Prior knowledge:
Oligomer: heterodimer
CATH class of the domain at 52-120 and 167-299 in chain A: Mainly Alpha
Structural class of chain B: mainly alpha
Largest sheet of chain A: none
CATH topology of the largest domain in chain B: MetI-like fold
Strand content of chain A: under 5%
Distance between the termini of chain A: 38 Å
Shape of chain A: globular
Radius of gyration of chain A: 25 Å
Distance between the termini of chain B: 35 Å
Number of domains of chain B: 2
Strand content of chain B: under 5%
CATH architecture of the largest domain in chain B: Orthogonal Bundle
Number of helices of chain A: 12
Order of helices and strands of chain A: HHHHHHHHHHHH
Shape of chain B: globular
CATH superfamily of the largest domain in chain B: MetI-like
Amino acid sequence: MAVAGAPRRSLSERALGFVLLAPAAALLLAIVVYPIAQLVWNSFFDIHLAEPWKGEPFIGLDNYRRALEDPRFWSSLGHTAIYAIVTVPGALLVGLGLALLANMPFRHKWPVRLGLLLPWALPLVFSGLIFRWFFEYRQGIVNDLLTRAGIEPLAWLTDPGLARTSICIAIVWKSSSFMALMLLAGLQTIPRELYEAAEVDGATRWQRFVSITLPMLRPAIFVALIFRTITAIQTFDIPYAMTGGGPGDSTETLAMYIQKTTLDFLDFGYGSALAALMFVVSMVATSSYLRYTRRSAGRD
Amino acid sequence: MVWLAGLIVAVNGFFPALWILFTSLKAETELMAYPISYLPAAPTLANYITAFTEQPLLRFLWNSFVVASLSTALCVLVSACAAYALTRLRVPKRDLIMASLMAVAMFPLISLMVPLFKVMRDLGLLNTYLALILPYAVLSMPVCTLVMASFFQDIPADLEAAAMVDGCSRVGALFRIVVPLSAPGVFTAAILAFVNAWDEFLLALTMMNRVSMRTLSVGITLYQGEFAFPWPLISAALIVAIVPISILIALFQERVVGGLTAGGVKG
């Protein structure tokens, strides 16, 4: 009986597997796959949501050609790149520092843990708003501290360079705590004996950090870096809340430009082309992540 | 020395929220004073009252609550089924399915928002809860599936087999044995999905343009005037918005950390 039952059971097990995966697959098809296909399709048409009487003529690659000649596309892409280049290593360094501090043997763990969780749980827009308040010219705490130190207050949010700087600071604050949580989890997997053995051998604190902590932390650092890079490409909420893209367009990111193109200018075809370009850029980063995790999974 | 390290981490995390709390308790006149004061000289709750009367803050709270809890329920149900199939049943191409799930988690939201806006508009779903519940459920699906899969994996297969010998069906075993035993995992996944939905901004801004349908994250930005930023008022509204999620996080910190790092490090 067991012999006859085995293949049938595994067959029905397979069927059950597909039944249980079906709802997830259906949701993914409806909310992700179909819209992305629509996005690519729409990017070949001239679609103005505010002027439906004009129809939606097919224009081939014109939307993409237009992007290449659009200075605002390039400048928003440039700002996105600046934020990524500054905040990815920035958040890693700050996050690593926080993780090392949080890894010390405390009597009460919860204030430290909550100190890392709170920035993570705070919505991005709210962080943007709060930092806007910090950097306010007259009543902001940053300029107040500068004045107390005898330095002239700075026009943080109205000078293009300073505005980008303040946005980077806000992003680093917001994203470093999640990074710290991931790195902390990595730190806690390092066996204590390694440090004890190194100490017996007379290794200094710095030597222990460089030759034990950093190498052991490498997988966690890599995953954290890729996560941050992928979210940096999509930067939207914090600059939206802090400057709205201003002064002028000097702090606008690609995501903000896409949002304005589609929802404010209702230039849907062009917005779709820009969003498709963003999709491609982001998928390059994602595939490198997937390749890495598959490689490390194979190593286990 | 150790306590100093803890203090730095705690201050770094708490300071912005604390500063907003101080601001929310200050009267407009105190805020205008120069140089600025740190602690509120005469704490007042007036800003909180104005925050609730000037904009439908209670309505924003309700909208966020409805959208976050319903999308969480949907997400956890769907992800639990998927995680079970992926860990306990012999499904072909398991790794490929997992990898494509992770790829979905990293899709740029803005690329999804543009076509989704048109789809929802054509379906007449703009300004309905459904327009946010469905995408939010999908956005948290990868991390929830991952978290629950790692919990399901730790339940001994014998336990399930025993239940099935006793006449339980596979699905019955899922809900009577696996789900209760992996309750912590299910719960962790639920918290993560809830926080994600509560915090989301871009889709909420896009799908809901009627004030009465705004969620908290978007509603708070409505307090700003054309030129002036009423900071005490915004701070009070921010505190109202932050408190529920902070309590949730504070109560279940260990779960949340475990879930976050399971999704990150193992993924």
